[in-house]
Amino acid sequence: MKTHCVGIIMNGVTGRMGTNQHLVRSILAIRAQGGLRVGDGEVIIPEPILVGRSEAKLKALSEAHGGLPYSTDLAPLLNDEQYPLYFDAQTTALRCESVKQAIAAGKHIYCEKPTAVNSADAMELYKLACDAGIKHGVVQDKLWLPGMMKLKYLIDTGFFGRILAVRGEFGYWVFTGERQAAQRPSWNYRAAEGGGIILDMLCHWRYMIDNLFGNVTGVSCFGANHIAERWDERGVRYDSDAEDAAYATFTTNQGIVCHFNSSWCTRVRRDDLLTVQVDGVKGSAIAGLRACWVQSDAETPKPVWNPDVENPLDFRAGWMRVPDNQVYENAFKAQWELFLRHLVLDEPFPWDLKAGARGVQLAELGYESSKRRTWLDVPELA
């Protein structure tokens, strides 16, 4: 058995997403299955070390998972050849500088998005990584959600015919923290700490649209700060000055119009926390995180507008659920495995730091559009 052991500095994994999605459900899951098998008698074994600012949190996380090594001091690890890969899941405001240090130390990079708080810094990371000759990737997890993979299958097999438009609905009610604890950290609602739903979610919509519906060419966005005061993890009231909802429309080079509503101030009455409806000439589909429903042209009902009587049509009944014809991995784990293959076997991995910078660019333009109340073109990053 040929074994490739890959030491990974995992910075910022004491947070909810870092712990659950990246450490437990990705890296530790890969280790639990005996590593990532990449051929007959060949396997990749990730070897993580946990890094963060709180020794107490790191110790608790380490002990909960079999005594993983941990450190509060990043600097010596960046000089340790045992760990060729640096992963960053810190808060957005901290990420750019740490990634820059890791690139300077010659580490390969895999990191969460947004990669920076502005596109200039995000592109600098990409150029530094290219100059350093290292491998680099950015988490774009929603591409591997079962619902989105089913949409991709429908697109690739021509189910829609010509796609006309896409409508995404994302969000849920995040409690203010006054009477019930909030489900999201308080920094999400502070602009100075990298909070705001435009920076958070337009990065997601960029890679989803680019990979499914064509490259984004234009944006119109309005950001709203619906709830101006919240209570933090200690129960202390604070001014939430970052936008908590965004209403955005995008165009693509395939002539498709995409509209995405993103809100932490909405109560859910739909099939999932994220739903994406795609309408085409030959059929439509609506996907959630895992499930996907379709309606072909032949099965489309013919409603008639008449508000004076109860509608006789059961619109939901006319949709068919796409079957689960394959086993779907955790979306984060699926991309981790692709990046590990890229790192060890040099297989292609297009979701690099430039892809991350495109997401930051779209968020930046979203803010500008909201400020100016205007439509903006999205130029290619150079």
Task: Give the key terms.
Rossmann fold; nine-stranded mixed beta sheet; 382 residues; Dihydrodipicolinate Reductase, domain 2; globular; 9 helices; alpha/beta; seven-stranded mixed beta sheet
Describe the protein in words:
With 382 residues, the protein is α/β, with parallel strands linked by helices. It folds into 2 domains: 2-141 and 331-351, 3-Layer(aba) Sandwich (Rossmann fold), CATH 3.40.50; 142-328 and 361-376, Dihydrodipicolinate Reductase, domain 2, CATH 3.30.360. The protein has helices spanning 16-32, 55-64, 74-78, 92-104, 119-132, 146-156, 197-212, 331-345, 353-372; strands spanning 2-11, 36-39, 42-51, 70-71, 85-88, 108-111, 136-138, 163-171, 216-224, 229-231, 237-239, 245-252, 257-263, 274-280, 283-287, 292-296, 320-321, 376-377. Strand 15 and strand 16 form a beta hairpin. The protein is globular. 41% of the residues are buried. The model has no long low-confidence stretch (mean pLDDT 97).
